[in-house]
Amino acid sequence: MVERNDDGLWIRRFADAQDAPCRVVCFPHAGGAASYFLPVARALAPGAEVLAIQYPGRQDRRHEAGVTSLVALAETIASVLLPSLDRPTVLFGHSMGASVAFEVARRLERAGTVPLALFVSGRVAPTRLRRESVHQRDDAGLLAEVKKLSGTDARVFDDDELVRLVLPALRSDYRAVETYRFEPGPRLQTPVHAHIGDTDPRVTPDEAADWCEQTNGRFTLHTYSGGHFYLDAHRAQVVRAISEVLVPA
Asked: Please, is 236 exposed, middle or buried when counting C-beta atoms within 10 Å of its C-beta (0-12, 13-18, 19+)?
């Protein structure tokens, strides 16, 4: 089952859990889509309903302009999510999605809603700036970076038509995340849980540990074997970590 909510194209539901006592909102990586979290939705149902965010410029939104600003993206998603936060809610973002989820959490708290927890996966803390320019590379250079991170089915790169379809969204996502700059503000009241792979070239344990500076609540750091997409091999463990946070709800 795949549904859209009344607020448009932003939210996908992949499992029937509408009566669940809590929700988990998932934010994809650069170039990623809501469907990446289909296995997570099925694993958490019926105890929790997963709302997977679909960014513009991909899949059924491929005819829309891609992401231009990570902060503007977070503003829009926060406004879309607010009517759906009628029960305890966890935010989970991977890579670019971690930064988006963090900025969404800030906006939800300003609006008076404190998420149950924020999971930031495969991403440096916002105060740890890495000056990167992958989005300025030519198509071959951009695809080489994606291949290095091993987050895309290798068969995609053998299909020229598919490559042409994904490149615009991929480039705009990389531009948004690489031009994002953290603006200091109040610490979150939301607990923050950082999850990373131990061989991830995109984030070190030290860079992830600095997420603790963004919350007045509890902070934890979990390290798994694997690279940037450690999540693919350790999905069950990550789902278990989310479930443990949901138990008090």
From this structure: exposed
Q: Which residues of 154-176 are buried (b: 16+ CB within 10 A; e: fewer)?
A: eeeeeeeeeeebbeebbbbbbbb
| Residue 199: DSSP 8-state | T
CATH topology assigned to domain 3-246: Rossmann fold (3.40.50)
pLDDT digits (tens, 9 = 90+) for 169-186: 899 999 999 999 999 999
Query: For residue 105, which of 86, 81, 72 has the smallest C-alpha distance?
Result: 81
CA–chain centroid gap for 124, Å, is 13
Average pLDDT, the chain: 89
If you ran DSSP here, which 8-state letter would residue 215 be given? B
Instruction: Kindly report, residue by residue over 1-30, the tens digit of the pLDDT.
Output: 333 444 568 999 999 888 899 999 999 999
pLDDT at res. 244: 95
The span from the CA of 198 to the CA of 203, in Å, is: 9
Q: Per the residue annotation, which of 69, 84, 95, 133 is the catalytic one?
A: 95
49: left (phi over 0), alpha (psi -120 to 50) or beta: beta
- Our answer to whether residue 225 is catalytic in this structure is no
Q: Give the predicted TM-score (pTM) of the model.
A: 0.91
Q: Kindly provide the residue ranges of all beta strands, DSSP E only, lying in the chain, ordered along the sequence.
A: 3-4, 11-13, 22-27, 48-53, 89-94, 117-121, 192-197, 219-224
Q: Are 203 and 175 in contact (CB under 8 A)?
A: no
Q: What are the angstrom distances between the C-alpha of 156 and each of 126, 162, 180, 207?
A: 31, 6, 28, 31
| Domain-wise residue ranges, the chain | 3-246
Closest CA to 126 of 73, 86, 70, 165: 70
